[in-house]
Input
Amino acid sequence: MKDDFPLFNRDECSIIAASLSNQPLTTYTLTMSSLPKLHNAMWPGLVGKEPNTDHPPISLDRMLELTAAAEVNGQKFEGVDLFLFHPHTDPDASDDDIKAMADKIAAKGLNVGSLVAPVWPGTVGSTSMGTAEDRAKFVLAVEKACRIGKVLNEHGVRKYGVIRIDAADSPTNWSADPAGNTKKIAETFREAAKVAQGYGERLAAEGEICWGGMHSWKAMIDTLEATGMPEVVGFQADLAHTYLYLMGYNAPDAALLQPGYSDGEFWAAYAKMTDALRPWTIDFHVAQNDGSVHGTGSHDKTGRHCQADDPNGKLDITKCSGYWLKDAASRGIKHICWDGCMFPNAVLEDPNTYNKILAAMIKVREANGWS
Output
């Protein structure tokens, strides 16, 4: 009988059912998960993209258009996460320019969540384990991101989310002095955290194999513990990147799985990794991974994101997400974001891509959400 009546996509919805035996109409109230909100990342239009190539940058306007157009059974994306650098966003844009961007996003029925600070050499920032000048640039990048966050918060388009950072340096450089470089990264993160705290922001360090001191699950924990500010500096987990943590890419000594692993071995390893990192996790990316690494443009090799329905995908997206989202509300998480970095432009320009992504995220919320 349930297929005879519409199920409206809202926090509390009514199903009106009439029995075949002329019983009175009955109204049933269902409570559906309203959190986490479902966001799409804007940076796939930038990361690994280069002008005058076959994978040029895709504008923020176009990424917003594609996101807003996606729809699955009446459900749409509820927000976007932003990359705070050219050509999407000028990190030195005036307040009025930021407000104009906020108006554009809000007009499409979208909120803003987490913001990616431009911490890398060649943007605003520089390596977190470099000279005093380098590290000051890193902190400055965080400050610029916090300033933009404040404008978006006051506008009303942003009500939740964090500032995303990473070490802005490679595992190769880090490995020249692991202990000393982890100490420098932690010192830089603490200085950045003091700035963020003044704005009421939290910093989420992206766990990814291409960032020194963050390139394995063990190294990531070492860096977070050395930073020692869990109320301000936490972890940003991405399903695709953390899969490669399991396999020990760039850190064979930290591998929890070997090729040819069994299903039972996978879930035991996944539980070990997530039990260690979940208490730190304050930002979460839904993604799929085919087990390979990839890099385009100037971006170092990292986990290859693939489409949600890719037959080569290694992850049960819904089940894996549950490991990270357990008790997520207690850590202040209010949204999740899809990350599709380094998809070919033809994939990113295809509206069906976003419907597939949205469908996967709806399943994640249905299985692991809260209200």
The two ends are 27 Å apart (CA to CA). Residues 1-21, 25-29 have pLDDT under 50 and may be disordered. The chain has two domains: 1-32, 35-368. The longest strand covers residues 12-17.
